[in-house]
Amino acid sequence: MRPVLIGDVTAAACALLAVPPARRTALARRLIAEAEAARRYQDGTGRAHPDWGNGTLMSAALAHPRRPEPRAGEPDFLECLMLVLAALRDRRHRPDAQPTQRCSDGSSASRASAMSSPQSSQ
Nearest CA to 36 among 68, 44, 119? Predict the structure, then answer.
């Protein structure tokens, strides 16, 4: 999946609004899976996936029925936003989740190594 922006989250939440509350968690996970599959498809073919788009969460969400974006304080919309964010958080903690960016050996991008370095205490 491509990096997630706030527009991706709100588009996904609008798709969740279009289904009954009991189906929203499953749809949030499905949208993420579709975005991940679309990213792999585009990386392999050089073209956007015919159903799920270019690998963004927004393009996957736009392939589904959705409701117009309500005001930010609307309780049902807030619940849908939280479900999307929880699905994204849970995806990051899955043991089978693929990293979205790889670091080369010797990179200081690794948080664990950066935190344990002598320079991090300065």
Answer: 44
